[in-house]
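Standup notes
- HV: blocked on the assembly model, inputs below
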Amino acid sequence: MRTVLLTGFEPFDQDTINPSWEAVRPLDGTLAGDVRIVARQLPCAFAQAPEHLQQLLDEFEPELVIAVGLGPGRADICIERVAININDARIPDNLGYQPIDTPVVAHGPAAYFSTLPIKAMVRAIRVAGIPASVSHTAGTFVCNQVFYYLQHALAGTAVRSGFIHVPALPQQAVQCGGPSMAQTTLVEGLRIAVISALNTTDDVLESGGQIS
Amino acid sequence: MRTVLLTGFEPFDQDTINPSWEAVRPLDGTLAGDVRIVARQLPCAFAQAPEHLQQLLDEFEPELVIAVGLGPGRADICIERVAININDARIPDNLGYQPIDTPVVAHGPAAYFSTLPIKAMVRAIRVAGIPASVSHTAGTFVCNQVFYYLQHALAGTAVRSGFIHVPALPQQAVQCGGPSMAQTTLVEGLRIAVISALNTTDDVLESGGQIS
Amino acid sequence: MRTVLLTGFEPFDQDTINPSWEAVRPLDGTLAGDVRIVARQLPCAFAQAPEHLQQLLDEFEPELVIAVGLGPGRADICIERVAININDARIPDNLGYQPIDTPVVAHGPAAYFSTLPIKAMVRAIRVAGIPASVSHTAGTFVCNQVFYYLQHALAGTAVRSGFIHVPALPQQAVQCGGPSMAQTTLVEGLRIAVISALNTTDDVLESGGQIS
Amino acid sequence: MRTVLLTGFEPFDQDTINPSWEAVRPLDGTLAGDVRIVARQLPCAFAQAPEHLQQLLDEFEPELVIAVGLGPGRADICIERVAININDARIPDNLGYQPIDTPVVAHGPAAYFSTLPIKAMVRAIRVAGIPASVSHTAGTFVCNQVFYYLQHALAGTAVRSGFIHVPALPQQAVQCGGPSMAQTTLVEGLRIAVISALNTTDDVLESGGQIS
């Protein structure tokens, strides 16, 4: 059966909940047309996340993969454009590991672009009244590591893949301040992202760039 | 019958929707215990809003009044602490009027404090997982005008009153960027605010201040 | 001799330097036309600052007083419009005191407006290429306390007075992040503010307001 | 003679001044030890900037190249980590050209990392009391184009190179709002960056990463 794989992360640092998992979990087992959606959780740990992701790729043989992570301080759903080959952790991951300036994949290329139709996805989410934009950095923590590993693992295949950062949930913003997005909005945004990615062969040509 | 009056504003400037009205409209006709909630819309115009508000006060004789307005760029539900006796409009209102440095009420005091239990309301909303905080400026546009007029009109009475600024709706943030809050979250936050205000006689003593 | 009194604060919290003092200290003993400028430091403590300020007012009998404080996170020189009669400290002051919801002056009015020509001052500073704006909240910490006390002490006199918040210094932003302003820019901005206030009888009529 | 090449941009869009040029222009003709610093201006145009830069590389045969650009809204000196192979212009450049999703260099790699000791440079600037940090996106406009082209042109050589984004000048922030940095601070920051880059063989190992 045609399959879309979505991943979210387990809670990180002080949090007891991770909006990336709350955003994709309700889509697990649902259908996008005749394509089933599978949602799975990744550990927030450099030493485990890539291997865990590889197992999911092997098990489900998806035609489309979207990994999702929390982007603290972000106000909208951010479709990431590029993954870079560097780990540089400001704080330790969930296993206490804090790599600084190590490559995600030794001798890998400096970066991979998303192979998702990022402009079409942004447009589709926005048309539904949900804030979204293209982002040009996925950071240098486990999110970027997973994104880079994903693109590396699928490079040269027909499987399209990419990464989305989501805002904090309202209950997290109660503690930390900053913008937030309701879970229902996140889930709907992710659902639209999946459908848009499945339905778009050639990405639309409209600006999603940044001056700096 | 015991009555709570909520007001929201009509759409303003380029907008076709105003989150302050979307936040209170669904509460119109509902009950908070044995107290009915009445929600009405105010014009976003200096020349009309106070008179319109006065008519609502006369008509419904509420025991509690909360006026609500849009706070563009705000990320949480802001319980306003103080209204000041100044109109200073950066842009024209919906009737094209743009007062600069005029008083809301000639010879009125410089300011009125909210008579709502603002700390208890912030706490109650946050306990429900919805971001909220005390705000120390309601600006100098029609929101502040309505807030000041409201406090002036009810000064010396037993009727408690105040003002709440709400974030933009997600569909507005699609256009303007910045943080947003889902309508369902706004309505729930306002509902909790009303109940908290009704149930609190003496405000709680916890910090909601700002360094600057 | 005609005198302008400027005050800045001693370092606060973790800081070893306070930009408000660095901004006014170099102006001490200088002349603005035939008016001498006196700059003095205030303690960052609720229990001491008003009394200390009163002594300075008694000693120098200034015709113009501008108190200056640090506004963490602010990007420009903020000419404050209004002081409110409330102390609400998020963190303890330099003596460990943290008042919550106490009045600055018992039975004082809710607020005092600045008696400085705030619009003319903003314009003059901006004409010199230095970012400045009107601010509508001085917070609820010692800055606001000093501002309120100052306006209260001079109410009904011909002495004009007000408050200015300045950004952090670059060396502070190295530690805390956020915007900053060079000391030379701060000093020049304050010097222009003094001259503008001395030279302006009637404030200019241009918008400095905020929507919310 | 050993040479460091610095570039800044001509004014862009509505501006009459570009802080990137004001930051490097005063360093032109100065010495860093026995190394001369040459500062030159680049056009803010996709069709001209790379060729212009190549001419400078040919003419001066520098051992170190730092291109500098304006980062509107940035509060500190941002040492860029990575250039990506994409042009995506939100607004037209100074020749009216607005490429969307075109490569900087056809068939070039997805990205190049800076070959500067970015962590040592950040540390050195910060030690001098000037805010600085590592940045993980140089945008998708002419700044990133120049950065990518520079790294591409020098790939495989011993010449080290990279890009720095600087905040707006105070006189620009007067118009546009947001944070700014004084020209003297910018020049000092750039001077330190050059010296640090010249003196550092192996970059220091300390975190400059971002969660997302």
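- HV (later): unblocked. Chains D and B do not touch (no CB pair under 8 Å). The first strand of chain D starts at residue 3 and ends at 9.
- Next: hand off to the docking folks.
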